[in-house]
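Here is the promised in-class demo. Please do not try to memorize the tokens; focus on the logic of going from shape to residues.
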């Protein structure tokens, strides 16, 4: 939902450059936090989760045109640091496939990476208070609401017609289909998006509950997981 399919040349240069600057800072922080983590187990899981995110984000839920991200699942299973890395890998591959321009990789990674971080945080805040399904579902709803507000903020700051990010001709060029205001865009995102949030919350809750039953050790980790002793 919060992945922007915006071609290159639409967003103001200062905005997407600032997105890359923040991305580099966030990547540096996440990589620093990974130094004390046992990567032998986490790297294969990172690849698997990134692959699943990539597949799911290429599927559209009709008729609300919603794309699930499963970024909250990534945050819960991988932790904030590796979850952010999964968001970067997924967005990079999507951009190379034409799902959004190269220039929006920074902003898109920040949005999805934030979902991984927030989803992880909310999920463990509700620990011992709610069943696993509801912990994951509520964490997803709260996370997607916050990041959708961030998406609306990006479009507002960019001062672009929101309709431009939704339509293109047969050659992939952006064409205007009439202007809509940022207020109308916000209503569309929060109303139609809320239906998608419920679907993704249910999907996330089901996935996390299933994994907690068949592979509970995947959910037992902290922000820093020490390396295995030699």
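The designed amino acids, position by position:
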């Amino acid at each position: 939902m919060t992945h922007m399919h915006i071609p290159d040349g639409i967003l103001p240069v200062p905005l997407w450059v600032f997105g890359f600057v923040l991305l580099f800072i966030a990547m540096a922080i996440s990589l620093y936090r990974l130094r004390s983590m046992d990567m032998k187990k986490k790297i294969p899981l990172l690849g698997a989760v990134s692959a699943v995110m990539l597949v799911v984000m290429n599927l559209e839920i009709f008729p609300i045109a919603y794309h699930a991200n499963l970024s909250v699942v990534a945050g819960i299973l991988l932790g904030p640091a590796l979850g952010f890395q999964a968001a970067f890998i997924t967005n990079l591959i999507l951009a190379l496939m034409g799902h959004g321009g190269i220039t929006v990789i920074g902003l898109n990674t920040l949005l999805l990476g934030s979902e991984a971080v927030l989803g992880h945080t909310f999920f463990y805040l509700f620990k011992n208070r709610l069943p696993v399904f509801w912990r994951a579902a509520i964490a997803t709803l709260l996370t997607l609401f916050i990041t959708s507000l961030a998406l609306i903020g990006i479009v507002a700051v960019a001062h672009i017609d929101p309709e431009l990010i939704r339509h293109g001709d047969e050659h992939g060029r952006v064409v205007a289909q009439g202007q809509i205001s940022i207020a109308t865009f916000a209503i569309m995102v929060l109303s139609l998006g809320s239906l998608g949030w419920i679907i993704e919350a249910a999907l996330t809750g089901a996935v996390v509950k299933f994994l907690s039953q068949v592979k509970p050790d995947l959910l037992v980790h902290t922000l820093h997981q020490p390396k295995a002793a030699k």
